[in-house]
Amino acid sequence: FVSTPLAANAAGPDWGLFEGRTGSLLHPAAMFGMAAMSASTALLGFQWRRQRTLGDEISALKKTLPDLNGASSVSEALAAAQSADTVDSALINALTQERKDLASQGPRDKHFNQGSLLLFIGIAFAIEGPLNTYARAGKLFPGPHLYAGAGLVVLWALAASMVPAMQKGNDTARTVHIGANVAGLGLFAWQVTSGIPILLKVLEFTKWP
Protein backbone atom coordinates (compact mmCIF):
# COMPACT_ATOMS: atom_id res chain seq x y z
CA PHE A 1 0.00 0.00 0.00
CA VAL A 2 0.99 3.63 -0.37
CA SER A 3 1.38 6.49 2.07
CA THR A 4 2.46 9.38 -0.21
CA PRO A 5 1.19 10.81 -3.53
CA LEU A 6 4.45 9.80 -5.21
CA ALA A 7 3.78 6.19 -4.34
CA ALA A 8 0.84 6.12 -6.72
CA ASN A 9 3.11 6.51 -9.72
CA ALA A 10 4.93 3.54 -11.17
CA ALA A 11 8.62 3.64 -10.32
CA GLY A 12 9.81 1.15 -12.88
CA PRO A 13 8.34 -1.07 -15.59
CA ASP A 14 4.70 -0.68 -16.58
CA TRP A 15 2.88 -3.32 -14.53
CA GLY A 16 -0.49 -2.53 -16.06
CA LEU A 17 -3.50 -3.48 -13.96
CA PHE A 18 -1.27 -4.64 -11.12
CA GLU A 19 -0.10 -1.10 -10.36
CA GLY A 20 -3.45 0.59 -11.01
CA ARG A 21 -6.47 0.90 -8.76
CA THR A 22 -7.74 -2.56 -9.69
CA GLY A 23 -4.59 -4.29 -8.51
CA SER A 24 -4.30 -2.01 -5.50
CA LEU A 25 -7.77 -2.96 -4.26
CA LEU A 26 -7.14 -6.70 -4.41
CA HIS A 27 -5.29 -6.68 -1.09
CA PRO A 28 -7.87 -4.76 0.99
CA ALA A 29 -10.78 -6.63 -0.60
CA ALA A 30 -9.18 -9.98 0.21
CA MET A 31 -8.30 -8.92 3.74
CA PHE A 32 -11.80 -7.68 4.56
CA GLY A 33 -13.16 -11.03 3.38
CA MET A 34 -10.53 -12.90 5.35
CA ALA A 35 -11.41 -11.01 8.53
CA ALA A 36 -14.95 -12.39 8.33
CA MET A 37 -13.66 -15.82 7.34
CA SER A 38 -11.27 -15.83 10.31
CA ALA A 39 -14.15 -15.23 12.72
CA SER A 40 -16.14 -18.03 11.09
CA THR A 41 -13.18 -20.42 11.25
CA ALA A 42 -12.62 -19.59 14.91
CA LEU A 43 -16.27 -20.35 15.70
CA LEU A 44 -15.99 -23.71 13.93
CA GLY A 45 -12.85 -24.46 15.92
CA PHE A 46 -14.58 -23.82 19.23
CA GLN A 47 -17.55 -25.93 18.10
CA TRP A 48 -15.21 -28.82 17.32
CA ARG A 49 -13.48 -28.38 20.66
CA ARG A 50 -16.86 -28.44 22.39
CA GLN A 51 -17.85 -31.61 20.53
CA ARG A 52 -14.59 -33.28 21.49
CA THR A 53 -14.67 -32.31 25.17
CA LEU A 54 -18.33 -33.28 25.53
CA GLY A 55 -17.24 -36.91 25.35
CA ASP A 56 -15.05 -36.43 28.42
CA GLU A 57 -17.85 -34.67 30.29
CA ILE A 58 -20.31 -37.45 29.51
CA SER A 59 -17.84 -40.14 30.60
CA ALA A 60 -17.19 -38.31 33.87
CA LEU A 61 -20.91 -37.97 34.57
CA LYS A 62 -21.53 -41.64 33.87
CA LYS A 63 -19.00 -42.50 36.57
CA THR A 64 -21.12 -40.59 39.10
CA LEU A 65 -24.21 -42.70 38.45
CA PRO A 66 -25.06 -44.97 41.40
CA ASP A 67 -23.93 -48.58 41.27
CA LEU A 68 -27.22 -50.47 41.40
CA ASN A 69 -25.41 -53.77 41.83
CA GLY A 70 -24.26 -52.56 45.24
CA ALA A 71 -27.80 -51.94 46.52
CA SER A 72 -28.75 -54.02 49.57
CA SER A 73 -32.43 -54.14 48.68
CA VAL A 74 -34.83 -53.65 45.80
CA SER A 75 -36.19 -50.45 47.34
CA GLU A 76 -32.68 -49.04 47.68
CA ALA A 77 -31.93 -49.89 44.06
CA LEU A 78 -35.17 -48.25 42.90
CA ALA A 79 -34.45 -45.13 44.93
CA ALA A 80 -30.94 -44.88 43.48
CA ALA A 81 -32.26 -45.40 39.95
CA GLN A 82 -34.91 -42.71 40.37
CA SER A 83 -32.35 -40.26 41.72
CA ALA A 84 -30.00 -40.91 38.80
CA ASP A 85 -32.81 -40.57 36.28
CA THR A 86 -33.87 -37.15 37.55
CA VAL A 87 -30.39 -35.65 37.88
CA ASP A 88 -27.37 -37.16 36.14
CA SER A 89 -29.15 -39.17 33.45
CA ALA A 90 -31.08 -36.12 32.26
CA LEU A 91 -27.87 -34.11 31.99
CA ILE A 92 -26.09 -36.97 30.23
CA ASN A 93 -28.92 -37.22 27.70
CA ALA A 94 -28.82 -33.47 27.07
CA LEU A 95 -25.05 -33.44 26.55
CA THR A 96 -25.23 -36.51 24.32
CA GLN A 97 -27.85 -34.81 22.15
CA GLU A 98 -25.73 -31.65 21.99
CA ARG A 99 -22.77 -33.71 20.88
CA LYS A 100 -24.84 -35.43 18.19
CA ASP A 101 -26.11 -32.07 16.93
CA LEU A 102 -22.57 -30.70 16.70
CA ALA A 103 -21.32 -33.85 14.98
CA SER A 104 -24.06 -33.58 12.35
CA GLN A 105 -22.73 -30.12 11.42
CA GLY A 106 -19.21 -31.44 10.84
CA PRO A 107 -17.29 -28.57 12.51
CA ARG A 108 -14.00 -30.51 12.51
CA ASP A 109 -13.75 -30.89 8.74
CA LYS A 110 -15.15 -27.42 8.08
CA HIS A 111 -12.64 -25.88 10.49
CA PHE A 112 -9.74 -27.74 8.88
CA ASN A 113 -10.82 -26.86 5.32
CA GLN A 114 -11.48 -23.19 6.07
CA GLY A 115 -8.28 -22.91 8.07
CA SER A 116 -6.24 -24.36 5.22
CA LEU A 117 -7.85 -22.00 2.71
CA LEU A 118 -7.34 -19.08 5.09
CA LEU A 119 -3.65 -19.89 5.45
CA PHE A 120 -3.15 -20.03 1.67
CA ILE A 121 -5.09 -16.86 0.85
CA GLY A 122 -3.63 -14.98 3.80
CA ILE A 123 -0.02 -15.67 2.89
CA ALA A 124 -0.66 -15.03 -0.81
CA PHE A 125 -2.19 -11.60 -0.22
CA ALA A 126 0.24 -10.71 2.56
CA ILE A 127 2.89 -11.00 -0.16
CA GLU A 128 0.74 -9.39 -2.87
CA GLY A 129 0.21 -6.20 -0.85
CA PRO A 130 3.89 -5.21 -0.52
CA LEU A 131 4.58 -6.33 -4.11
CA ASN A 132 1.80 -4.07 -5.34
CA THR A 133 3.25 -1.14 -3.39
CA TYR A 134 6.73 -1.83 -4.74
CA ALA A 135 5.42 -2.04 -8.32
CA ARG A 136 4.05 1.49 -8.03
CA ALA A 137 6.56 3.20 -5.74
CA GLY A 138 9.76 1.25 -6.19
CA LYS A 139 10.03 0.87 -2.42
CA LEU A 140 8.08 -0.20 0.65
CA PHE A 141 6.87 2.03 3.47
CA PRO A 142 7.84 0.43 6.79
CA GLY A 143 5.34 1.06 9.55
CA PRO A 144 3.00 -0.59 12.04
CA HIS A 145 0.65 -1.93 9.36
CA LEU A 146 3.47 -3.66 7.49
CA TYR A 147 5.08 -5.06 10.63
CA ALA A 148 1.79 -6.23 12.13
CA GLY A 149 0.93 -7.93 8.85
CA ALA A 150 4.20 -9.85 8.96
CA GLY A 151 3.49 -10.79 12.57
CA LEU A 152 0.05 -12.05 11.59
CA VAL A 153 1.58 -14.40 9.01
CA VAL A 154 3.93 -15.73 11.71
CA LEU A 155 0.95 -16.40 14.00
CA TRP A 156 -0.84 -18.27 11.20
CA ALA A 157 2.24 -20.40 10.62
CA LEU A 158 2.58 -21.09 14.36
CA ALA A 159 -1.07 -22.16 14.62
CA ALA A 160 -0.76 -24.45 11.59
CA SER A 161 2.46 -26.01 12.89
CA MET A 162 0.61 -27.19 16.01
CA VAL A 163 -1.88 -29.35 14.06
CA PRO A 164 0.21 -32.58 13.86
CA ALA A 165 0.75 -32.57 17.64
CA MET A 166 -2.92 -31.71 18.22
CA GLN A 167 -3.97 -34.73 16.20
CA LYS A 168 -1.96 -36.85 18.65
CA GLY A 169 -3.87 -35.38 21.60
CA ASN A 170 -1.24 -32.89 22.79
CA ASP A 171 -3.09 -30.35 24.97
CA THR A 172 -0.16 -27.92 25.00
CA ALA A 173 -0.27 -27.78 21.20
CA ARG A 174 -4.01 -27.13 21.35
CA THR A 175 -3.46 -24.26 23.78
CA VAL A 176 -0.77 -22.73 21.57
CA HIS A 177 -2.98 -23.17 18.48
CA ILE A 178 -5.92 -21.43 20.13
CA GLY A 179 -3.74 -18.70 21.64
CA ALA A 180 -2.04 -17.93 18.32
CA ASN A 181 -5.37 -17.72 16.50
CA VAL A 182 -7.03 -15.56 19.16
CA ALA A 183 -4.03 -13.22 19.08
CA GLY A 184 -4.24 -13.29 15.29
CA LEU A 185 -7.90 -12.26 15.36
CA GLY A 186 -7.06 -9.32 17.59
CA LEU A 187 -4.17 -8.30 15.35
CA PHE A 188 -6.39 -8.73 12.29
CA ALA A 189 -9.01 -6.38 13.76
CA TRP A 190 -6.30 -3.79 14.38
CA GLN A 191 -4.95 -4.31 10.85
CA VAL A 192 -8.34 -3.49 9.37
CA THR A 193 -8.57 -0.19 11.25
CA SER A 194 -4.96 0.75 10.49
CA GLY A 195 -5.40 -0.20 6.85
CA ILE A 196 -8.40 2.04 6.19
CA PRO A 197 -6.32 5.29 6.03
CA ILE A 198 -3.97 3.55 3.59
CA LEU A 199 -6.95 2.43 1.51
CA LEU A 200 -8.21 6.01 1.34
CA LYS A 201 -4.81 7.15 0.03
CA VAL A 202 -4.90 4.42 -2.60
CA LEU A 203 -8.32 5.62 -3.75
CA GLU A 204 -7.05 9.21 -3.82
CA PHE A 205 -3.82 8.65 -5.72
CA THR A 206 -4.65 5.82 -8.13
CA LYS A 207 -6.83 5.63 -11.21
CA TRP A 208 -8.86 2.91 -12.87
CA PRO A 209 -8.15 0.38 -14.10
Automatic annotation (TrEMBL):
Instruction: List residues traversing the bilayer.
Output: 25-46, 117-135, 147-166, 178-200
Keywords, in A-Z order: Membrane, Transmembrane, Transmembrane helix
Q: Which Pfam families match?
A: DUF4079
- UniProt superkingdom: Eukaryota
InterPro entries found in the cross-reference section: DUF4079
Spell out the PANTHER family in the cross-references: OS02G0122500 PROTEIN (PTHR34679:SF2), PTHR34679
Q: What is this protein called?
A: DUF4079 domain-containing protein
Q: Which organism is it from?
A: Thalassiosira pseudonana (Marine diatom)
Lineage from the top down? Eukaryota, Sar, Stramenopiles, Ochrophyta, Bacillariophyta
